Protein 1
Amino acid sequence: MKISDILADGRLSLSFEVFPPKTDASFDSIRSATEEIATLSPSFMSVTYGAGGGTSRYTLDIAKNIKESYGVPTLAHLTCVSSSKATVRERINDIISSGIENVMALRGDIPTEMMDTDRSGWDYTHAIDLVRELRESGADLCIGAACYPEIHPESCDQSEDLFYLKEKVDAGCDFLTTQMFFDNNLFYNFLYKARERGITVPIMPGVMPITNANQIERAIKLSGSFIPQRFKSLVDRFGSSPDAMKQAGIAYATDQIIDLFANGITNVHVYSMNKPDVARAICNNLSAIIGR
Ligand code: FAD
């Protein structure tokens, strides 16, 4: 099933993101975590693509398993920046032949040591190159891309970020998923500005439940997200008690999701990070709201 059809359906739902194993040794444990999440019947599950393509094979293995064994639609992420055209074409063919109908077209992070190199000879410099290639393949794929309510760290300002976002969407995206944010007002402002720029595809908010104090530092480093005082207080009060922090982090994410649903969003994407207990707790908190 295509994600564009899921988003058009209008029912309130949650989707979950998982990441593939980095080594053969962790494959079985990660597969079983993703299977547990699949039993919660999310609207779909997305499977990330390892930075630099290191775990590319597993992205499809996990996505196929969830789709075929649990009937949950899957979205396979694909990055392009440090890959050759031949490699990306091979990956696209693998996705098509595996029967996965949804692809998240991403640039990927530029490795630090390559930040200052001349990119003019690269096969791919931005996600738009991958979106175009996926469209040119002629395959009947639903294509998603990333967007940033708090602007991408490499952008000068929001106006520039939205300019390139519009260009990326016009190249053939069916939907967008946001970077995580902890203040819903940032998302609402972004949504308003994106619509004002003529970006009309569905924009799915991404929410990350922070369940331990160390995760916050990593999450901010990765996303540059603004942390509201309300969230800081929660970490100050409960950060040193793992069980209390987990409960508080799940409650905070639940609160964000309820507010998003109340303001007209129909599907929230949860960065569940291979944690079935967290995904389950959120589903339980929202059982009457999402009708389960
Ligand atoms: P782009 O769309 O190329 O944008 C990157 C920057 O370039 C932005 O500043 C943009 O404004 C600018 N830009 C875009 N087009 C142009 C242009 N034509 N000319 C000049 N500037 C331009 N990373 C992974 O490695 N694996 C994953 O699975 C993964 N999944 C993700 C899922 C989501 C929902 C999000 C939000 C991010 C994900 N990432 C993932 C991280 C992502 O790869 C990085 O944030 C990366 O730095 C940017 O990727 P992008 O696809 O947004 O790039």
Note: The longest helix spans residues 242-262.
Protein 2
Amino acid sequence: MGQPIDGRAVAQKVNAETSLQVERLKVNGVVPGLAVIMVGDDPASFSYVLAKEKKAQELGFKSFIYRMPPTTTQQELLELVRSCNENAEIHGILVQSPLPVALNEHELVMAIVPEKDVDGFHPINVGLCALGAPHALRPCTPAGIVRLLQECKVSTRGKRVVIIGRSRIVGLPLAHLLLQRGEFGDATLTVCHSRTPDLGSETRRAEILISAVGQAHLVKADMVRPGAVVIDVGVNRVEDATKPRGYRIVGDIDYDAVLPVASFVTPVPGGVGPMTIAMLMANTVQACRTQTGL
Ligand code: NAD
């Protein structure tokens, strides 16, 4: 029988480390500042932004939340990003996805100065991360997954690792991280995606299987190699009349069926999700230290 990986507990540990660094910065008269820009009223984005604001405040950051109306123009957003770039109290900036379709997210990410790009999505940071630069701002979800593996003492060195999904926010940068040299890199890596013809034949070979697709219960027990470590990034709503909201959140992995086959599995919720926010806070402190030289 496999063990669940408690992402909330690991996130708490990361947050405690961040909190210590915040204390040290405050002794030097510096308070880390995080700016979050959200446009429109997408309910999921709203709750993500709220969670980031809450965590930033809990950790003693200065939090700058910009909730912009859906009618905001690209030009207005570019100006907002530029003013955050120039604001010395702001060390990290992120633009919450998704944006209304009329807006160009790529252009906005490009407008953030790379040293304040705490999501790690700017091409400079993507490049630094791919090249294994030690102080690159790494994308939060992939960095959180690597930290979960470290905490569970699951080395990836030489292991057959299969990632399902190649998005620019999860699958692709995670592949970059797992190909770095080191005990939590050096993977023998396969990246699957929507054009992979026989997903099960790939996943069954995985000693470590990571799914970042966004399809409820895509990965069944017969797609998992016995004893594999399984990391579930997916966040999917499925109808559930027993819940007050009429739905519940599940991952990409058929958790109840896979747990008995695997050695470790991350639950959804409570696995990768809390790590993403924890790593965002850690990135903000890292950015603050780089910018202030402290
Ligand atoms: P995306 O839509 O950008 O990418 C999905 C990827 O899955 C694509 O590369 C696509 O090729 C692949 N794919 C689609 N169908 C497939 C199939 N049948 N077989 C194999 N591959 C297939 O999504 P994303 O932004 O990477 O997010 C993926 C999931 O992870 C979503 O559910 C998202 O909500 C979740 N997510 C969670 C966190 C977190 O912190 N927990 C963070 C980011 C994303």
Note: The mean pLDDT is 97.
